[in-house]
Design a protein that fits this description.
Helices cover 49% and strands 16% of the residues. The chain has 9 helices and 8 strands. The chain binds adenosine-5'-diphosphate. Residues 10-11, 32-33, 36, 53-54, 57-60, 65, 85-86, 88, 92, 166 line the site of adenosine-5'-diphosphate (ADP).
Length: 209
Protein backbone atom coordinates (compact mmCIF):
# COMPACT_ATOMS: atom_id res chain seq x y z
CA UNK A 1 0.00 0.00 0.00
CA UNK A 2 1.27 3.48 -0.87
CA UNK A 3 1.62 6.05 1.88
CA UNK A 4 3.32 9.02 0.27
CA UNK A 5 4.35 12.40 1.61
CA UNK A 6 5.06 15.31 -0.69
CA UNK A 7 7.48 18.02 0.43
CA UNK A 8 8.52 21.16 -1.40
CA UNK A 9 8.69 24.93 -0.95
CA UNK A 10 5.75 27.20 -1.85
CA UNK A 11 4.97 27.02 -5.61
CA UNK A 12 7.19 23.99 -6.15
CA UNK A 13 4.29 22.15 -7.79
CA UNK A 14 3.09 19.97 -4.90
CA UNK A 15 -0.60 20.46 -5.77
CA UNK A 16 -0.10 19.63 -9.46
CA UNK A 17 1.89 16.47 -8.76
CA UNK A 18 -0.51 15.45 -6.02
CA UNK A 19 -3.43 15.39 -8.48
CA UNK A 20 -1.46 13.29 -10.94
CA UNK A 21 -0.28 10.80 -8.32
CA UNK A 22 -3.85 10.45 -7.04
CA UNK A 23 -5.02 9.58 -10.55
CA UNK A 24 -2.18 7.12 -11.09
CA UNK A 25 -2.54 5.22 -7.82
CA UNK A 26 -6.15 5.83 -6.83
CA UNK A 27 -5.12 6.97 -3.35
CA UNK A 28 -6.86 9.65 -1.30
CA UNK A 29 -4.91 12.85 -0.86
CA UNK A 30 -4.89 15.61 1.71
CA UNK A 31 -3.47 19.09 1.16
CA UNK A 32 -3.06 20.52 4.65
CA UNK A 33 -2.85 24.04 3.17
CA UNK A 34 -6.23 23.60 1.42
CA UNK A 35 -7.74 22.07 4.55
CA UNK A 36 -6.60 25.05 6.62
CA UNK A 37 -7.81 27.57 4.04
CA UNK A 38 -11.24 25.88 4.00
CA UNK A 39 -11.42 26.17 7.79
CA UNK A 40 -10.62 29.89 7.55
CA UNK A 41 -13.25 30.44 4.84
CA UNK A 42 -15.92 28.63 6.85
CA UNK A 43 -15.20 30.78 9.89
CA UNK A 44 -14.99 27.69 12.13
CA UNK A 45 -13.34 27.79 15.55
CA UNK A 46 -10.20 26.20 14.09
CA UNK A 47 -10.36 28.63 11.16
CA UNK A 48 -10.33 31.62 13.47
CA UNK A 49 -7.40 30.13 15.37
CA UNK A 50 -5.25 29.40 12.30
CA UNK A 51 -5.99 32.51 10.23
CA UNK A 52 -3.32 34.59 11.93
CA UNK A 53 -0.65 31.97 11.12
CA UNK A 54 -1.68 31.66 7.48
CA UNK A 55 -1.83 35.41 6.97
CA UNK A 56 1.63 35.91 8.41
CA UNK A 57 3.30 32.99 6.60
CA UNK A 58 4.00 31.12 9.87
CA UNK A 59 3.56 27.40 10.40
CA UNK A 60 0.47 26.34 12.32
CA UNK A 61 1.40 24.81 15.73
CA UNK A 62 2.25 21.09 15.56
CA UNK A 63 -0.45 19.74 17.94
CA UNK A 64 -3.23 21.46 16.01
CA UNK A 65 -2.19 20.29 12.55
CA UNK A 66 -1.39 16.78 13.85
CA UNK A 67 -4.92 16.41 15.23
CA UNK A 68 -6.45 17.53 11.92
CA UNK A 69 -4.30 15.12 9.89
CA UNK A 70 -4.98 12.23 12.30
CA UNK A 71 -8.74 12.80 11.91
CA UNK A 72 -8.41 12.80 8.12
CA UNK A 73 -6.25 9.65 8.05
CA UNK A 74 -8.72 7.81 10.30
CA UNK A 75 -11.32 8.29 7.55
CA UNK A 76 -9.06 7.56 4.57
CA UNK A 77 -6.53 4.90 5.47
CA UNK A 78 -8.03 1.83 3.72
CA UNK A 79 -6.38 2.26 0.33
CA UNK A 80 -3.25 4.24 1.14
CA UNK A 81 -2.83 8.00 1.12
CA UNK A 82 -0.87 10.97 -0.07
CA UNK A 83 -0.12 13.93 2.19
CA UNK A 84 0.68 17.22 0.44
CA UNK A 85 2.25 19.54 3.01
CA UNK A 86 2.55 17.21 6.01
CA UNK A 87 4.89 16.61 7.79
CA UNK A 88 6.67 19.98 7.78
CA UNK A 89 8.60 19.68 11.04
CA UNK A 90 10.62 16.95 12.72
CA UNK A 91 7.97 16.69 15.46
CA UNK A 92 5.32 16.01 12.79
CA UNK A 93 7.54 13.50 11.00
CA UNK A 94 8.26 11.61 14.22
CA UNK A 95 4.56 11.59 15.14
CA UNK A 96 3.75 9.97 11.80
CA UNK A 97 5.89 7.02 12.84
CA UNK A 98 5.41 6.74 16.57
CA UNK A 99 1.91 8.06 17.26
CA UNK A 100 -0.73 5.27 17.02
CA UNK A 101 -3.06 7.67 15.13
CA UNK A 102 -0.70 7.54 12.15
CA UNK A 103 1.36 5.10 10.09
CA UNK A 104 4.83 5.57 8.68
CA UNK A 105 5.06 6.75 5.07
CA UNK A 106 6.41 4.39 2.41
CA UNK A 107 7.87 7.17 0.24
CA UNK A 108 8.90 10.80 0.77
CA UNK A 109 8.99 12.92 -2.40
CA UNK A 110 10.91 16.22 -2.22
CA UNK A 111 10.52 18.79 -4.99
CA UNK A 112 13.57 21.00 -5.26
CA UNK A 113 13.27 24.44 -6.95
CA UNK A 114 15.62 27.46 -6.77
CA UNK A 115 14.26 30.47 -4.87
CA UNK A 116 14.32 32.86 -7.87
CA UNK A 117 12.10 30.54 -9.88
CA UNK A 118 9.70 30.12 -6.95
CA UNK A 119 9.33 33.91 -6.71
CA UNK A 120 8.57 34.06 -10.41
CA UNK A 121 5.96 31.31 -10.11
CA UNK A 122 4.33 32.92 -7.07
CA UNK A 123 3.93 36.21 -8.96
CA UNK A 124 1.99 34.45 -11.72
CA UNK A 125 0.02 31.95 -9.61
CA UNK A 126 -3.77 32.29 -9.67
CA UNK A 127 -6.61 30.14 -8.46
CA UNK A 128 -9.96 29.79 -10.17
CA UNK A 129 -12.68 31.15 -7.91
CA UNK A 130 -15.16 28.70 -9.45
CA UNK A 131 -13.43 25.33 -9.87
CA UNK A 132 -10.33 25.84 -7.70
CA UNK A 133 -7.82 24.99 -10.48
CA UNK A 134 -4.33 26.46 -10.11
CA UNK A 135 -3.33 28.44 -13.19
CA UNK A 136 -0.23 30.45 -14.05
CA UNK A 137 -0.62 33.74 -15.88
CA UNK A 138 1.83 36.23 -17.35
CA UNK A 139 2.26 39.57 -15.59
CA UNK A 140 -0.62 42.01 -15.96
CA UNK A 141 -2.94 39.66 -17.81
CA UNK A 142 -6.63 39.26 -16.99
CA UNK A 143 -7.09 35.73 -18.28
CA UNK A 144 -10.02 33.49 -17.36
CA UNK A 145 -9.72 29.92 -16.09
CA UNK A 146 -8.85 27.58 -19.00
CA UNK A 147 -10.86 24.79 -17.33
CA UNK A 148 -14.19 26.51 -16.73
CA UNK A 149 -13.92 30.19 -17.74
CA UNK A 150 -14.18 31.29 -14.11
CA UNK A 151 -12.59 34.37 -12.56
CA UNK A 152 -8.92 33.94 -11.56
CA UNK A 153 -7.82 35.30 -8.18
CA UNK A 154 -4.53 35.43 -6.27
CA UNK A 155 -4.26 33.37 -3.11
CA UNK A 156 -4.37 35.69 -0.08
CA UNK A 157 -0.97 34.45 1.14
CA UNK A 158 0.81 34.72 -2.22
CA UNK A 159 2.40 38.15 -1.77
CA UNK A 160 6.17 38.32 -1.89
CA UNK A 161 6.70 39.10 1.78
CA UNK A 162 4.52 36.21 2.91
CA UNK A 163 6.23 33.92 0.40
CA UNK A 164 9.67 34.83 1.80
CA UNK A 165 8.58 33.96 5.34
CA UNK A 166 7.09 30.65 4.24
CA UNK A 167 10.26 29.90 2.30
CA UNK A 168 12.49 30.73 5.28
CA UNK A 169 10.39 28.41 7.46
CA UNK A 170 10.62 25.74 4.83
CA UNK A 171 14.42 25.97 4.77
CA UNK A 172 14.68 25.94 8.54
CA UNK A 173 12.09 23.33 9.53
CA UNK A 174 11.14 21.19 6.53
CA UNK A 175 14.33 20.81 4.54
CA UNK A 176 16.04 18.93 7.43
CA UNK A 177 13.45 16.19 6.89
CA UNK A 178 15.21 15.31 3.63
CA UNK A 179 18.07 13.82 5.65
CA UNK A 180 15.62 12.14 8.00
CA UNK A 181 13.93 10.28 5.13
CA UNK A 182 17.13 9.73 3.18
CA UNK A 183 18.55 7.88 6.22
CA UNK A 184 15.52 5.56 6.02
CA UNK A 185 16.03 5.01 2.29
CA UNK A 186 12.62 6.59 1.56
CA UNK A 187 13.60 9.88 -0.09
CA UNK A 188 12.95 10.61 -3.76
CA UNK A 189 14.40 14.07 -4.52
CA UNK A 190 13.17 15.49 -7.83
CA UNK A 191 14.25 18.61 -9.70
CA UNK A 192 11.00 20.59 -9.51
CA UNK A 193 12.23 23.28 -11.87
CA UNK A 194 11.44 20.95 -14.77
CA UNK A 195 8.03 20.92 -16.46
CA UNK A 196 5.09 19.28 -14.66
CA UNK A 197 5.18 16.41 -17.20
CA UNK A 198 8.88 15.80 -16.68
CA UNK A 199 8.56 15.88 -12.90
CA UNK A 200 5.64 13.47 -13.00
CA UNK A 201 7.49 11.12 -15.36
CA UNK A 202 10.27 10.75 -12.78
CA UNK A 203 7.80 10.10 -9.96
CA UNK A 204 5.80 7.65 -12.06
CA UNK A 205 8.89 5.75 -13.06
CA UNK A 206 9.93 5.43 -9.41
CA UNK A 207 6.46 4.26 -8.33
CA UNK A 208 6.29 1.64 -11.06
CA UNK A 209 9.67 0.13 -10.31
P1 LIG B 1 2.74 26.59 0.51
O1 LIG B 1 3.47 25.29 0.43
O2 LIG B 1 2.69 27.34 -0.78
O3 LIG B 1 3.18 27.46 1.67
P2 LIG B 1 0.28 25.30 1.44
O4 LIG B 1 -1.06 25.50 0.83
O5 LIG B 1 0.85 23.93 1.41
O6 LIG B 1 1.19 26.36 0.72
O7 LIG B 1 0.24 25.79 2.98
C1 LIG B 1 -0.24 27.07 3.33
C2 LIG B 1 0.01 27.36 4.80
O8 LIG B 1 -0.67 26.41 5.62
C3 LIG B 1 1.46 27.29 5.27
O9 LIG B 1 2.15 28.47 5.01
C4 LIG B 1 1.29 27.05 6.78
O10 LIG B 1 0.93 28.24 7.45
C5 LIG B 1 0.07 26.16 6.84
N1 LIG B 1 0.42 24.71 6.89
C6 LIG B 1 0.14 23.77 5.94
N2 LIG B 1 0.60 22.56 6.31
C7 LIG B 1 1.19 22.71 7.52
C8 LIG B 1 1.88 21.85 8.42
N3 LIG B 1 2.05 20.55 8.15
N4 LIG B 1 2.34 22.37 9.57
C9 LIG B 1 2.19 23.66 9.88
N5 LIG B 1 1.58 24.55 9.07
C10 LIG B 1 1.07 24.10 7.91
Amino acid sequence: MHRIILMGPPASGKGTQSLRIQKLLGVSALSTGNLLRREVESGSEIGVEVEVYLNSGAYVPDPLIMKMVANWIAEHDESGWLLDGFPRTLVQAQALESDPSFQAPTLAIALDVPEALLEHRIAGRRECSQCGATVSVSAGSDEKCPECGGELVSRADDDLENFRRRYANYREFTQPLFDYYAAQGKLLAVDGSRSPNEVFAIIEQHLQR
